[in-house]
């Protein structure tokens, strides 16, 4: 591919993969994403390697596991010199444009102590050129200014509160003035003035909560036919902590006393599907612009999400958990020159850290040694990769070093213990905790995530095998910045990329 072709890298926020590839797919219409699937390659087993938003985007854009970049919480700084998609594009003469946000807490070592950038976790990752500012907690940003100009009477209580007595009543603003519509309008107005060769990182905040949608999206889908959340027959100390830390009421504004009953859950799930349909609609506007301007065939398009959402499954909400719904995200890649694989759905276990290396590889740029992910190019070419890992790995840090989280209070643990790691194979999932908590084992050939089978007969052998595999994974994937560099009598020498052993090949 020519290195001057356009790049459209779209990231939704908190978008569940099963809206596209699973149980919910039959209940939500996503015509843009489905058309893109038919014209590109889909990955049905793509998992974010961490959550929540800040850590997930740090991994997505640096190609690193959280255990390496260590920006493990919203507000934990990312080292300023960590190579990422934007810095590598700049090295190659490309300008990475940001329409939205990256949730990157800044490195305090390189900024004055009083710098305002050190007061928010919603700053911009090093290397990106912020074209349109849109941040969730930015109450003075361009979208809010747009709403004021449009005559809406705003307050902290009304911006994201349903306008009515029910939790699925419409938002204050019209669909044409939503945050999703505003960002799309701004992107299209800007790209219309740019010559071909642009690189656009477009980040929609939806369907992230608060779950409120403008009409008609708030009741676009029938709550009575919406699949009920998954139920669990298991108990675990972390489950109780998660339910207390992120209750249903935390996902909506103005309904703190609303009972978490079947009706409320169904309404919220239907609103979530409406928000998913809304971002699909506006992505369709972007695709139509590319077609109308004659740029579609010369644009690399990548669509994914930073992480998922529990949405009431197992009595849990949000993404701070170990269940798949918190990490399983859609991934679609349409790469010019790879039309022969259009419509293919790959089921290999791939990870969010593979996306940045893939973009760099497709553009013909070097992949830094610091990146743990691998290019997905072979799958776009219709090939298999015999040395590809047969598992995925994710991490979650649920502590806070300054103020104990509800997780820490319920579990009685400190911030250094408040973390977990997940190893997913096709048939089993193992969850290990940093604290002295029992591990969790799911058997996908049986009850799946509905039952923790760690105590079942014969489980000890599986736990030992997978624990050893998790340990090997961590040993084989330390920070790789200088892993292939040696200081010699002839000066620094670096091994060629082809000399690098396949990541996670051992099992």
Summarize the structure.
The chain folds into 2 domains: 6-386, Alkaline Phosphatase, subunit A (3-Layer(aba) Sandwich); 394-499, Arylsulfatase, C-terminal domain, CATH 3.30.1120. It has 13 helices and 17 strands. It has helices spanning 18-21, 31-39, 53-62, 66-69, 85-91, 142-149, 179-191, 237-245, 262-292, 355-362, 377-380, 406-411, 459-476, and strands at residues 6-12, 41-43, 46-47, 50-51, 96-100, 129-133, 199-203, 299-305, 331-334, 344-346, 350-351, 392-397, 419-424, 428-433, 440-443, 485-488, 491-494.
Number of helices: 13
The CATH homologous superfamily of the largest domain is named Alkaline Phosphatase, subunit A
Structural class: alpha/beta
Biggest beta-sheet profile: 8 strands, mixed
**Biggest sheet, strands in spatial order?**
6-5-7-1-8-9-2-10
Tell me roughly what share of residues is in helical segments.
Answer: 25-40%
User: SSE order, as H and E?
Assistant: EHHEEEHHHEEHHEHHEEEEHHEHEEEHEE
Low-confidence stretches: 499-507
Give the beta-strand count. Answer: 17
Q: What is the CATH architecture annotation of the largest domain?
A: 3-Layer(aba) Sandwich
Q: Could you report the average pLDDT, rounded to the nearest whole number?
A: 95
**Radius of gyration (Å):** 22 Å
CATH topology of the largest domain: Alkaline Phosphatase, subunit A
Reading off the top of the CATH hierarchy, the class of the largest domain is best stated as Alpha Beta
Query: Which percent band covers the strand fraction?
Result: 5-15%
Instruction: Report the span from N to C terminus.
Output: 35 Å
Count the domains.
Answer: 2
